[in-house]
UniProtKB/TrEMBL annotation, chain A:
UniProt-recorded name of the protein: Trafficking protein particle complex subunit
Source taxon at top rank: Eukaryota
Species annotation: Triticum aestivum
InterPro entries reported for this sequence: Longin-like_dom_sf (IPR011012), TRAPPC (IPR007233)
Keyword Repressor listed: no
UniProt cross-references to CDD domains, sorted A to Z: TRAPPC1_MUM2
Native organism taxonomy: Eukaryota, Viridiplantae, Streptophyta, Embryophyta, Tracheophyta
Compartment(s) where it occurs, according to its Swiss-Prot or TrEMBL record: Endoplasmic reticulum; Golgi apparatus, cis-Golgi network
Automatic annotation (TrEMBL), chain B:
Intracellular or extracellular location(s): Endoplasmic reticulum; Golgi apparatus, cis-Golgi network
Organism the protein comes from: Aegilops tauschii subsp. strangulata (Goatgrass)
Family designation: Belongs to the TRAPP small subunits family. BET3 subfamily.
Gene3D superfamilies: Trafficking protein particle complex subunit 3
Keywords: Endoplasmic reticulum, ER-Golgi transport, Golgi apparatus, Transport
Name of the protein in its database record: Trafficking protein particle complex subunit
Biological process annotations from GO: Golgi vesicle transport
InterPro entries with a match to the protein in the record: Bet3 (IPR016721), NO_sig/Golgi_transp_ligand-bd (IPR024096), TRAPP_component (IPR007194)
Amino acid sequence: MQFFGGSSLTSVAPESSPAPAAPPGTGTGSNAQVIYVFNRNGVCLLYREWHRPLRTLARNQDQKLMFGLLFSLRSFTAKIDPTSTEHANLGAPLLPGQGCSFHSFKTNTYKLNYMESPSGIKLILLTHPRTGDQRDALKHIYSLYVEYVVKNPLYAPGSPIKCDLFNKHLDQYVKTLI
Amino acid sequence: AFTAKQKSISPNWPITHYSRPATLRVVLSSDLSRPPPAPISAMPPLTTPKSGDALFASVERVNAELFTLTYGAIVRQLLTDLEEVEEVNKQLDQMGYNIGTRLVDEFLAKSNVSNCADFKETADTIAKLGFKMFLGVTATVTNWDAEGTTCSFVLEDNPLVDFVELPDTCQGLQYCNVLSGVIRGALEMVSMKTEVTWVRDMLRGDDAYEMRVKLTKQVPEEYPYKDDD
């Protein structure tokens, strides 16, 4: 998408699927708002915000509710799957990867993009509501996580991420999201 | 941590032949100054796993002999430090477990594998993609039991054991125990509890390497918080 720049805009990461044109004033580094990274045990490995003017909850409360929302939403999305033949009750424990999941939901003011790896890492990225499909972007963030967090010998798995290099590359990358 | 000092290879280290092509994937790299992964434009669609060869071609590799000798050095150092062969086996398994719990994320990020339908598919994925990505070889999955929860990985080619002979004093040593630990650790991260044992070992005169993997439990996702906290 060269909509808002000439061919010199090489720092914009090329998306594999053309994203809808970002509204004026975004696509210049202010599209991504907040990211959460959780592991399977509900530990918030990373919380980082770039744009979040209003805070109504204490941080750990906020994180816990976010995890709870996703957990319930996933079990519900799997439950209402019309192609599924399973008859388990709503809320019955799912195996990782069992049933379908969702990729994003959108409100009039933001879009929540979600990815879960089979190893239980959950990535949640809040963006401007008119950003395009972020599945590739989340995959890329996951590979940044692998490169700079998982392979960092000083990082203890399951503990909050305190890797400057990861944060730096993450900041850099989300600026390119459209 | 999976680090080793090259200097601890003794001159007596049994070196018999140099025949392997010098390309192998190794898991110990943690060079934090490297550039970030390439942008994602060239990625295939999200749902298509890469083939083993494509996967192997896409990851960083190190010299095979360096890898083999480094592993040898680790085992040797453990034998010196721990003295008991049984303790060494345990330690190797634990090291493998620690590697596996991290390595699984790298595997998932780079292979585009999403979810396996059952343990059979999981085993196949490990044999064809996992082994290929990290060791440059593939394994064969055989000897399924009736319930489909136990199977064997057979390795005809095992890059860990080049140049190795077990001396008489170390006959109880499970030289490749790190591999079984890796598999146990990696599968635990995808909620499969397994027991992994070696049943055939070429270092003890068998005709191949065979690892028996038994799926003991699949752990469902639980809501991790208690109501009152």
